[in-house]
User: Fold this.
Amino acid sequence: MSLRPHLTATLLLGLPLVGTHVGRMLIGVTDTVLIGRYGVVELAALVLATSYFFILVMLGSGYALGVMGVIASARAQGEAAELRRATRMALWVSVLHCVVIAPLMWWSGPILIALGQEPQVAALGQLWLRVMLFAMPPVLAGMVFNSYLAALGRPNLVLAITVIGLPVNALLNWLLIFGHWGLPELGVRGSGLASLTVNWLQLAALAGCAAWLPEGREYRLFQRLWRPDWPAFRAVLALGLPIGLTLVAETGMFTGANVLMGWFGAEALAAHGIALQIAGLTFMVHLGISNAATIRVGTAHGGGDAAGLRQAALAAIILSAGFAVLPMTAFLTIPELLTGLYLNPADPRAPQIVALAASLMVYAGLFQLVDAMQAIALGILRGMQDTRVPMWLAIFSYWLVGLPAGWALAFPLGMGPPGLWLGLLCGLSAAAVLLMTRFWRAAPRLDGAAALVRGAQPR
Assistant:
């Protein structure tokens, strides 16, 4: 099979997944834009709180991402029971994660203050996080259903549910933040309540699709969901926890950068948050292609198709690298136009924040390609159910290269906020090189592994 069909198949599967990730990110962008027009201190608090929330979500999302490859592989092998067991226990582990991290969200204010944040910013951040504690279960369970539906070849349903949530979230934010139509003016808390409502509505829609979708009825996903399956539980935990820790290593680097940026003041943190969110929006494209790579590599891995696995991986790399050129160009040529959308022009602090955010966008443009490659490499390796070694490579890259380099450049070397972003570039570059090397060194051994799989199949 030539590479062109793999490019087409990855694109057709990846586009709805990209749309889903972009849609979710746009929900966050809507929150940030509206809060940015409500107040600068509130914007700084939301930047800090969403980063805090995101790192806890990423720690729990490894189980959903891990079973995506398992579901694709089990479906390729015709193992309906394995597919059902893995998905159910991913839901179990995700809910357990919500219970474990609840204290960290409820008493987040003292933690933020201990990290050097201003008391007013920390208090508002805790207010938002306490509301969003009750959004964590639908967020993580929804990710499991996303993986299930995508691996069954129906990512379009996930995209539709996400897109429908966009205007609902925007309307609720507008009403609850500013107090329109006779509702109370709740500011940051109102933004959290809007997100909470939308996430529960989306979970209900995803669960309904998983239950009634013709392709999924044979798997009887909800039958005896309450019964534990401890072997499958342990397997999902062993596969997903390294993925979650890998994501925490990356998001933790950015969250650590948020904390360090907060030392420069609320204006610098607001500028950092704006630039980071714009860069994160384009990253959703690479994340969607990475998810498509996980499914297609997982299918080839389950079927013992070594050549197909390599071509599926190469197709994802080409597509992601090609897209990276577009945002790179925009970030380097029109940064002020992009960052200026987030603030009220009448705010006297707006010009200073926009100028700083625009200077940071230059570094965001420079790390587009390496950020894409590390995301694709992780997706490919997850499809091969290779998660432990990539975890250690990621921890090394982000925490021993990226964050220390950012601190050294920003403070001892006196580069300020741009130095912090240059450190992020160093960490992402190290991850891209190490993870891609991990895959391509394993590629020559795939033919032998595929032969063993075929030899084990009944004739």
Remarks:
- The longest helix spans residues 40-77.
- The chain has 17 helices and no strands.
- Residues 3-454 form one domain.
- The chain has one domain: 3-454.
